From TrEMBL:
<feature type="domain" description="YCII-related">
    <location>
        <begin position="17"/>
        <end position="106"/>
    </location>
</feature>
<dbReference type="InterPro" id="IPR011008">
    <property type="entry name" value="Dimeric_a/b-barrel"/>
</dbReference>
<protein>
    <recommendedName>
        <fullName>YCII-related domain-containing protein</fullName>
    </recommendedName>
</protein>
<dbReference type="InterPro" id="IPR005545">
    <property type="entry name" value="YCII"/>
</dbReference>
<dbReference type="Pfam" id="PF03795">
    <property type="entry name" value="YCII"/>
</dbReference>
<comment type="similarity">
    <text>Belongs to the YciI family.</text>
</comment>
Length: 135
């Protein structure tokens, strides 16, 4: 089994087919989208492929260390101008092909007008330990 991170970009990814921003959806369209996500996760829980997932608020701040005795440096919030990750899901699957299959299915979540978004999802494998050489 291999773990993959599925990232849902609200901004910063290639343009989706149904490219109406979520802040222009009706409450019913948002509810249908969220239900699709819950149903997708529940189905993957049944197969043992779902690990975790969360929707994210649009606000965010970059933070970095600024040396001993100094407070952390912050830059942000960036909700209006930067790439925006809307949410993420971790899956644990048998193969890369299965991860691509599930990402494609998740991409079809409904959006404006109840039509599939066909959004681009970023699929990233978890970093694993490099193999060690034994003599």
């Amino acid at each position: 089994m291999a773990k993959y991170l599925l990232l849902k970009h609200y901004r910063g990814a290639p343009t989706a087919v149904n490219d109406v921003p979520m802040d222009q959806w009706t409450p019913q369209e948002i509810s249908a989208h969220m239900q699709y996500m819950r149903d997708f996760a529940a189905r993957l829980e049944q197969t043992g492929e779902f690990v975790e997932g969360q929707a994210l608020a649009p606000e965010g701040t970059f933070v970095r260390y600024d040396g001993e005795g100094n407070p952390p440096v912050t830059d942000g919030p960036f909700a209006e101008t930067k790439d925006l990750i809307a949410g993420w899901m971790v899956i644990d699957v048998d193969s890369y092909e299965r991860a691509v299959e599930l990402a494609g299915e998740l991409s079809a979540a409904p959006g404006a007008g109840g039509k599939p978004i066909h959004e681009w999802l970023e699929l990233r494998p978890f970093l694993t330990e490099p193999p060690t050489i034994t003599e």
